[in-house]
Amino acid sequence: MKRFITFEGGEGSGKTTQIKLAADWLRERGIPALSTAEPGGTPLGRKIRELLLNRGSWTIGAEAELLLFAAARAQHVREIILPALEAGQWVLCDRFADATLAYQGFGRGLDAGFIRTLNAFSAQALKPEMTLLFDLPVEAGLARAKKRAAGGRPEAAEDRFEQEERAFHGRIREGYLSIAAAEPERFRIIDGAGSVETVHREVCRCLEALPQLPFLEGERA
Ligand code: Z5A
Questions:
Q1: How far does the centroid of ligand 1 lie from the alpha carbon of residue 136, in Å?
Q2: Ligand 1 mean position to 27 CA, how many Å?
Q3: Which of these, 20, 63, 73, 119, could form a disulfide with 97 (CB 3.0-4.6 Å)?
Q4: Residue having the nearest C-alpha atom to atom 4 of ligand 1
Q5: What is the pTM assigned to this prediction?
């Protein structure tokens, strides 16, 4: 069975922290897990990421932004995700197609129908088996991101998305919750406000609940 699990949420919701812990947790149980992220994951994706997060000075319109995320995803799916799934690895992905609907659809106001079509095209119709949505009030997420940016490392400086107004981030949060409500069988909504350990335990519970986990048989015995 192919295991493709995505981690989604607004700014500072803790996805990146949790995906690393989840991948380690799986590997400790003998499950080959690949952890990857969008935009990025491939050399082309990393170039596109630099353009998109743009801590420089050029302008990117909403339409160009959408197409750049789609291009990064198309390469990521072809070069990394599908081969890993074919090789029997579990793939954990930090953001995927739902992010495009949340950010470019709900956030930027681009047409949701077109985004869904473009998402299916760029992902070769691949859909996650399960999506963990880390939900956190906007202010709390932005405060975490600001604290990280204040750390002084250039790569942690605020990016184009973090510099957006609060209302933009509010639309993203509501957008994610409505995408999740439309597909309750795929989504698990996790309260991102708890401690790293509490949230990790919740993630493990979601992974353990997946059917036919070989390691669970051993742990229960
Ligand atoms: N984007 C898009 O518009 N369309 C698309 O199709 C795709 C993406 C795929 C990518 O930015 C941007 O691209 C993203 C959406 C857009 N922008 N935004 N916003 P990115 O990859 O650089 O960043 P990100 O995906 O937004 O992640 P993030 O800002 O790094 O946040 P995170 O992954 O959710 O959280 P984190 O890195 O795990 O934690 C953030 C900080 O909080 C960090 O200092 C942690 O130590 C701390 N943290 C984490 N968990 C906790 C808990 N539980 N308590 C306290 N502190 C915590």
A1: 11
A2: 23
A3: 119
A4: 100
A5: 0.94
CA of 170 to the centre of ligand 1 (A): 15
Angle at CA of residue 79, ends 86 and 134, nearest 5°: 80
- Scanning 43-195, the segments in alpha helix (DSSP H) are 43-53, 62-76, 82-86, 97-100, 112-122, 138-149, 166-182
Token pair in block for residue 100: 């495009």
Distance of alpha carbon 91 from alpha carbon 5, whole angstroms: 6
Q: Which residue's alpha carbon is nearest to atom 48 within ligand 1?
A: 14
Q: How many CB atoms sit inside 10 A of residue 162's CB?
A: 17
Ligand 1 pocket, residue 98 CB under 6 Å: no
Q: Is the CB of 199 under 6 A from ligand 1?
A: yes
Could you give all domains of the chain from N- to C-terminal order, each with its CATH number? 3-208 (3.40.50.300)
Paired with 134 in beta bridges are 9, 190
Q: Best of 7, 160, 161, 195 to mutate for ligand 1, by most ligand atoms within 8 A of CB?
A: 161
Query: Over its length of 221 residues, how does the chain's per-residue pLDDT go in tens digits?
Result: 679 999 999 999 999 999 999 999 999 999 999 999 999 999 999 999 999 987 667 889 999 999 999 999 999 999 999 999 999 999 999 999 999 999 999 999 999 999 999 999 999 999 999 999 999 999 999 999 888 877 666 566 677 787 788 999 999 999 999 999 999 999 999 999 999 999 999 999 999 999 866 555 555 43
- Residue having the nearest C-alpha atom to atom 57 of ligand 1: 14
Q: How far apart are CA 165 and CA 64, in angstroms?
A: 20
